[in-house]
Amino acid sequence: MQMRVSPQARKKNPALPEYWQVRAVTYQVEGNEKTVFTSLPASKFSAEQVATLYHERWEIELGFRDIKSSMQDNALTLRSKTVDLVYQELWGLLLAYNVVRREASQAAVAHKRAPSEISFKFACQHIASHLVVMAGAVSPSHTPRRLEELRGSIGVLFITKRPRPARPRAVKMSKTRYPVNRKAAPLK
């Protein structure tokens, strides 16, 4: 299959061809048919491998979304100003993300549920509040018991699977072609 190279890409790199070759990989997920376009050669990557790679990549993207929305409160930038502190902040975010995911998955196993059924946002808030309490504990010998209590209390954070909407997603039409001044004074 051929797809046209975007004008923006050709403007950045005029050496690009007008068309590029892609292949469509179609597969089933929970009864729904999905199609992925890829430039990976069919001789090296089977359709099953492409589908698996796509899902792994999708899980990574969801992890990034969780970090940005739940752990950083939708901040557009990091707080650090120097390169070393940016690295430190990124490592801290990744470490905290993995701690929350691990504790949530341990709680899911304890409750005989899938780890994906626990809300990351609420698990993050719940674990953060418990860690503050645990940090103030007098005796470190109580930590294993408190971790067990934490995993038991995460059980209330399971989310129910919502049904998919009956109609497919669509881009809504804009009501106006002109920018709206939201700071304008109301008409009298």
Topology:
Blueprint: E1 2-4, H1 7-12, E2 19-21, E3 23-29, E4 32-38, H2 47-71, H3 83-110, H4 120-135, H5 143-153
Antiparallel strand pairs: 1-2, 3-4
Helix pairs in contact: 2-4, 3-4, 3-5
Write a structural description.
By secondary structure, the chain is mainly α. It folds into 2 domains: 77 residues, no CATH class; 78 residues, no CATH class. 46% of the residues lie in helices and 11% in strands. It has 5 helices and 4 strands. The strands form 2 sheets. It has a two-stranded antiparallel ribbon with strand order 1-2. The protein has a two-stranded antiparallel sheet with strand order 3-4. Helix 3 packs across helix 4. The longest helix has 28 residues. The chain is extended and about 70 Å long. The relative contact order is 0.07. This is IS4 transposase. GO terms for molecular function: DNA binding; transposase activity.
> What is the C-alpha radius of gyration, as a whole number of Å?
23 Å
What number of structural domains do the residues give?
2
Arrangement of strands in the largest sheet: 1-2
Principal-axes shape call: extended
Total count of helical runs of at least 4 residues: 5
How can the largest sheet be summarized?
2 strands, antiparallel
Approximate helicity band:
40-55%
Assembly category: single chain
Unreliable segments (pLDDT under 50, ≥5 consecutive)?
A: none
Element pattern in H and E: EHEEEHHHH
Keywords:
5 helices, mainly alpha, IS4 transposase, transposase activity, two-stranded antiparallel sheet, 2 domains, 46% helix, single chain, 188 residues, extended, two-stranded antiparallel ribbon
